[in-house]
Design a protein that fits this description.
Elements (H helix, E strand, L loop, with lengths): L8 H14 L4 H21 L27 H12 L6 H5 L3 E4 L11 E7 L4 E5 L4 H11 L4 E2 L2 E2 L6 E2 L4 E2 L1 E5 L5 H14 L9 E6 L4 E5 L19 E8 L5 E2 L2 E3 L4 E3 L6 E5 L13 E3 L2 E3 L2 E9 L21
Antiparallel strand pairs: 1-2, 2-3, 3-15, 4-8, 5-6, 7-10, 8-9, 9-18, 10-16, 11-15, 11-18, 12-17, 13-14, 13-16
Helix pairs in contact: 1-2
GO molecular function: iron ion binding; L-ascorbic acid binding; procollagen-proline 4-dioxygenase activity
Protein name: Fe2OG dioxygenase domain-containing protein
Keywords: Dioxygenase, Endoplasmic reticulum, Glycoprotein, Iron, Metal-binding, Oxidoreductase, Vitamin C
Length: about 325
């Protein structure tokens, strides 16, 4: 039920209602129905004509209530999400003109003879793609290890800190420990070489598979100030950076999109995306809000390596002046 992907919410709701007549207890369809009805209401509110005095004629009781982190993101972000997934929203010429590709070694002796292939996707915030970051043989081993352990992917509850399933993240995931296989250890070491960050405070490698329709709606990888219980059990601080390995090509869909800066990263087998979730000050960079677009054809395999603040004090030290400016909330 991804008719909303083309902006046709009314048809999506109609099809969902037809499905519920056949299968009344369909969990996914019931969740979609609630969302589509809310979406149509928001669209109708935006289309209402203002009064003669220039004020909105919408009764105050009908206005949507704004929240810091809404369960369903707002209409403007929804639209940006859809357009980016459809390839209709592009970065500006100014953004593109400053980007470059190059070989880098990060002062790692091993990389002197085999430098990394880096492609910039965004200067600010800094988002890069590493090519040939994972080899086909490694990918097959990671897949083989992950498949028997797959479970429905979870998210962390912002209030309780507990892991739970959510209808805005549809995928299967598994966790692989570094010491389980030499291939996992090699990938972790390569991640350290790519990022320059210490992996001892990083989470285990998370492997994720998205089937047809699989997606993850806009979210942050870091914990906001109000999420005091997030990562409490790890005792390693917040997620300072994300490395996202693409382990398959995707025929259609499946892009990683950054809704605040109009950047879309298309899955390409063997590449890895890297970005910092936090400013040097430790404040969250809200421009890194991102999403996984629905898979339209084929299957999407990725793996995540989330790196935490602990042990990065000298690898990414604070600056003398705050570097977060207007984006710190």
């Amino acid at each position: 039920m991804f008719k909303w992907y083309t902006g046709n919410v009314e048809t999506a709701l109609l099809m969902t209602n037809e499905l519920l007549q056949l299968i009344p207890n369909h969990e996914r369809a019931n969740g979609n129905k609630v969302y589509y009805e809310k979406e149509l209401k928001e669209i109708s509110l935006k289309k209402r004509v203002k009064g003669d005095d220039g004020s909105d004629d919408t009764p105050k009781s009908d206005l949507p209530i704004s929240k810091a982190e809404p369960a369903v993101f707002d209409y403007s972000e929804r639209k940006a999400y859809e357009l980016l997934c459809q390839g209709k929203l592009k970065p500006t010429s100014a953004q593109l003109s400053s980007l470059s590709c190059r070989y880098i070694t990060n002062e790692v002796p091993f990389l002197k003879i085999g430098p990394l292939k880096l492609e910039e996707a965004s200067k600010d915030p800094y988002i890069v793609i590493y090519h040939d970051a994972m080899y086909d043989s490694e990918i097959e081993i990671v897949k083989r290890m992950a498949k028997p352990r797959f479970r429905r992917a979870t998210v962390q509850n912002a209030i309780t800190g507990e892991l739970e399933t959510a209808n805005y993240r549809i995928s299967k995931s598994a966790w692989l420990k570094t010491e389980e296989h030499s291939i996992i250890a090699n990938i972790v070491q390569r991640t350290e070489d790519m990022t320059g960050l210490d992996m001892l405070s990083a989470e285990e490698l998370q492997v994720v598979n998205y089937g047809i329709g699989g997606h993850y709606e806009p979210h942050f990888d870091f914990a906001r100030r109000e999420e005091v219980k997030a990562f409490q059990g790890l005792n390693t601080g917040n997620r300072i950076a994300t490395v996202l390995f693409y382990m398959s090509d995707v025929e259609q869909g499946g892009a990683t999109v950054f809704t605040a800066i109009n950047i879309a990263l298309r899955p390409r087998k063997g590449t890895a995306a890297f970005w910092f979730n936090l400013h040097k000050s430790g404040e969250g960079d809200y421009r890194t809000r991102h999403a996984a677009c629905p898979v339209l054809t084929g299957s999407k395999w990725v793996s995540n390596k989330w790196i935490h603040e602990r042990r990065q004090e000298f690898r990414r030290p604070c600056a003398l002046e705050p570097d977060h400016g207007e984006f710190a909330i």
